[in-house]
Amino acid sequence: MADGTIFEKRGIPAASITTDAFTASANAMARARGFPTYHYAMIPHPLSSLTPEQVRQRAREVLPEILGILGIEPLD
Amino acid sequence: MSPITVDTLDPEAVQRTVEYYFDQGWTDGMPVVPATESRLADFLATTPRGPDEVITSGPQWGLSCTVSQAAINAIMAGCRPEYFPVILAGMEAMWGGERNISPLLVSTTGSAPMLVVNGPIREEIGLNSAGSLFGSGFRANSTIGRAIRLIILNVFQLRPHELDQATQASPAKYNVCFGENEEESPWEPLHVELGYQAGESTVTGFLARGTLHIENRHCQHPERLLMSIADAMSYGGAQYAPHGATVVVMGPEHAQLVAKQGWTKAQTRQFLWEHYGRTMGDLRRMGKGCFEELSSGQFWLADEPNGKLMEGTADLPDDHFWRFGRSVDDVLLLVAGANNAGVSAVIPPIGPVGGRRNMAAVQRTE
What we know:
The complex is a heterodimer.
Chain A: H1 2-9, E1 17-19, H2 23-32, E2 41-43, H3 52-70
Parallel strand pairs in A: 1-2
Chain B: H1 11-24, H2 37-44, E1 54-58, E2 63-66, H3 67-77, H4 84-95, E3 112-118, H5 121-125, H6 139-155, E4 177-179, H7 190-193, E5 202-208, E6 212-215, H8 222-233, E7 246-250, H9 252-260, H10 265-274, E8 277-279, H11 280-285, E9 290-293, E10 299-302, E11 321-323, E12 331-335, E13 343-347, E14 349-350, E15 359-361
Helix pairs in contact in B: 2-3, 3-6, 4-6, 8-10
């Protein structure tokens, strides 16, 4: 979250991703960085106990939102 | 000490002041002592450091802590002014020099700052190093540890349910500061082992996951006794990933039993390090048998192999003993507690614990 806000403030498009278990911490970090309206992507918790295929599925699901944050039109 | 008179105090005003601090969110959940300008001056007078000097920063949160801010929180924690140099040395030990306040403080692990004090200042400020070491009842221990927590909560704003992501944390997160029981230790104290003079006072600081209690009241054999301690050091729930340091706090009775049979502190540490670990079979049975490389280049304990494993670890036989410590330096050995039973403790830390890097001398005004 901190890195994402720093990139954005310097004009470099960046997307931060968090699992829904960390919403409060993500919002607190955005406030601490002076960027309370910072838009980030969220995926369901957990992550570290998933198989590689389940991680890929999480990535596929969140991709449209990440592209939206980066201001990129989906290819398809 | 002269008796405290309260006849000039307005009890309602005291209550309102305490509630004001709660309303501002400036507490750890317990009442704090109001900080005043005159009290602040008393605290600042104990240290040669300037009030606006930055002790440590948290660049990821865009915040830093000055000597004055630390003093205000020490007052709120209930400290006496003469405790303040210990707090500053503790912060220096954990986060001084080119280091910053540790991001591990907001880890899901729930790490708690712990301070260990050596040297004559223990007696001067009444810091407990004997019975009920990790428990309550001693102002210096309770309030110095609490001051560190209040600095983390109020200055760095690392509050639970916000930036602090601890899954469960431990009671150690209220306050932990204790002295080494140098008087009843058969060995040289920690600061002397690391090159300081016995007459100097130092503070060692590290982040801990909690404390594990060890009882072995009847054993008279150093090896067997130390094996029970090494077993606690190596408990399956720990996250060593796949190497990590640990802290052993031997009760005086255990330390004296071992020393009386000729064991030096160095030999004791060596034995503990050699038996600090688990067999690969144990680790595999507990879902921790794969040392998997993360994108950062660090390793993580995994259950099934998904990514790149640490070289040479995939085919280790089940009876291979995997050492958690890289060297004897990964075992910090202290002696503390009452000399009244065969009891010791292990403190599983997170991050580095040992060496002069995690120790700072207490500096006071002349």
